[in-house]
Amino acid sequence: MPHFTVVPVKDQAQDRYDSLEGSTGWITGTLGRIIRTLSALMVRHGNHKEDRPFLNSADAASKNNDFYDRNLALFEEELDIRPKVSSLLSRLVSYTNITQGAKEHEEEERWSLAQEDPQDSQHGHSDGSLPAVSPEHLRCHPLPPTDMDCRDGWHHAVTPDRAHVLLLSGGAYFMISRSLGPEFGGAVGLCFYLGTTFASAMYILGAVEIFLKYLVPQAAIFHATDSLGGDSAMLNNMRVYGSICLSLMAVVVFVGVKYVNKLASLFLACVIISIVSIYAGALKSMTHPPEICMLGNRTLVRDRFDVCAKTVTKDNMTVPSQLWERFCLPGNMSSAQCDDYFLQNNVTEIQGIPGLGSGIIKENMWGDYQRKGEILEKVGLESVEVHGATDNFGMYVSADIATSFTLLVGIFFPSATGIMAGSNRSGDLRDAQKSIPVGTILAITTTSLVYISSVVLFGSCIEGVVLRDKFGDAVHKTLVVGTLSWPSPWVIVIGSFFSTSLTGAPRLLQAIAKDNIIPFLRVFGHGKANGEPTWALLLTGLIAELGILIASLDMVAPILSMALSFLGMSMCLALMFISSWYYAIVAMVIAGMIYKYIEFQGAEKEWGDGIRGLSLSAARYALLRLEVGPPHTKNWRPQLLVLLKLDEDLHVKYPRLLTFASQLKAGKGLTIVGSVVQGNFLESYGKCRQLSSIM
């Protein structure tokens, strides 16, 4: 309800109005001053009119506009009265992205929350240290066949710790909720949180896969009992080691992010060296390309034999090679005891990385999607087809999953979404208003350059069958990008292993919980005395464990795409349905339910967001439209102002006035109920608040 302040005013001296002449002279002088003021205003603003319902503009051409001479705007566009160049330069110099009064409003709200829970009033670091890139955000994990994610180095390389700014913790959620309202912020923020949490599981699974496939294969706990049980044993190993790795990461994050930052420089160095080694390897491959063994046009698993030939010469005698023994009965040179395809085709070696000048990019320009179990074959290489089942299937490099455009987009897309990871730690930044925009732009620029140049290099240097070799079976079980790198494949392997994520998601959940827009999440807003999100970290670890129990990297990646794609609206909606249409539907249903839940709970937060501003503009537009012409009788609605008198206890003295007003308007129209509190508003503020709650 509106508040009115009544201030007593002393009576003016009456001697100047004792006579009729004195009164007439004073009235004439006052009217003269008013007329001159109005004339000056009409001269300046008489040619301006409003042609749009939401913005004051002076470039309208129509003189018969409905809004003419009924302009409610309280300002005039500077471009209408000043040269455009000087106006734009002036705006750039004096630009601030903090709306007047917004900072005070946020500080007051945070102060009230801090009064309820003193532990929650701690935000970020204030020691003035300059952290490097934390390892969880510098991801350089090779997704099959090759995939790098090294965006967020710029986020932390250019962003010092924060002391006190308007942009608090929460990053993207904070910006969306303050711009579009708590409903949109909560729905998008929770989806973003789930996506970031599953990202942690995906990076851990990638690190464990590198550990078991390339670093220490003998560390496997579960082993295949037959040739068909290898995948199941590998998934069980990834579950065990993934859970151990997640527990260790949770302990480190629980102790404090400052310890993560101390190791960030080391991890940043590993990632930068890994990227540089790829470009160096592209030049080195032109002189020392690795050889790939082919049987006909089929790619062979290279670590199953020593020499790429059917026979070898030993002591001036031709004897069967290890490759011969793989396809034929051991120690028997008879053709009848060998595989038909092996007998009909020759064994040859081709260059796996022929180099930039080979022209291989023409062959790699077009897609070649594989079915599960399909053998990788080189197009254009001579081969004699043999009908019937292949007896020695384990000797060939084959696809472990069915590939398609939608699947590959779902696997690759998460690597392009980490640009917001730096903003998730906005609570740890000293000047988030400056650091996040600059860091995000530099992260996007760096990532785009690395990705585009890497795609061109891979397509120009590497043979197609090697690119589609997921685990590097054709190059002695080495990562494909590791084979290209220089001086050693271990540079890529080690750089990829030291990159996982678990610090951004708990802080995002803590920011959502502290805003109290979803009541049942409020407990996750509490943390340690230094502001570390203890309870949020626990929930994040449990959700990430669900992703690790899935164990398959190719199955977790589409879930991550589903959760993060909602941020990009139209473009990312298409990516959601391309990656997995049923996951996309689930994500939209979850976001819709969260939105309606926050709306149902009331979401009594006033952040000056755009949705409420749009509602105000729409209401203003509707009121202006009502003044176009006289309303029809059936559209007329009464508008009543009821002034109620209060007693000494600030209770309504005559409540039946409201009943009478209700009878007058018959349940329609608009009724404004008010009262008058005598005195100064600042001194009577508490009384006004009490009166507002009572009425």
TrEMBL record:
Keywords per UniProt: Cell membrane, Chloride, Glycoprotein, Ion transport, Membrane, Phosphoprotein, Potassium, Potassium transport, Symport, Transmembrane, Transmembrane helix, Transport
Q: Which Gene3D superfamilies match?
A: Amino acid/polyamine transporter I
Which top-rank group of organisms is this from? Answer: Eukaryota
Primary localization class, coarse: membrane
Q: What are its GO biological-process terms? A: cell volume homeostasis; chemical synaptic transmission; chloride ion homeostasis; potassium ion homeostasis; potassium ion import across plasma membrane
Instruction: State the Pfam families in the record.
Output: AA_permease
Region spans: Disordered:
100-134
What InterPro entries would the database entry show? AA-permease/SLC12A_dom (IPR004841), KCL_cotranspt (IPR000076), SLC12A_fam (IPR004842)
Q: What is this protein called?
A: Amino acid permease/ SLC12A domain-containing protein
Catalyses: K(+)(in) + chloride(in) = K(+)(out) + chloride(out)
Entry's Gene Ontology molecular function annotations: potassium:chloride symporter activity
An example GO CC term for this entry is: plasma membrane
List where the protein spans the membrane. Answer: 184-205, 240-257, 263-282, 401-421, 441-467, 479-498, 535-560, 572-595
- Membrane topology annotation: Multi-pass membrane protein
- Similarity section: Belongs to the SLC12A transporter family. K/Cl co-transporter subfamily.
Q: Where is the composition biased (Basic and acidic residues)?
A: 102-111
Q: Where in the cell is it found?
A: Membrane
Looking at the record, the residues that make up the Amino acid permease/ SLC12A domain are 168-281, 380-566
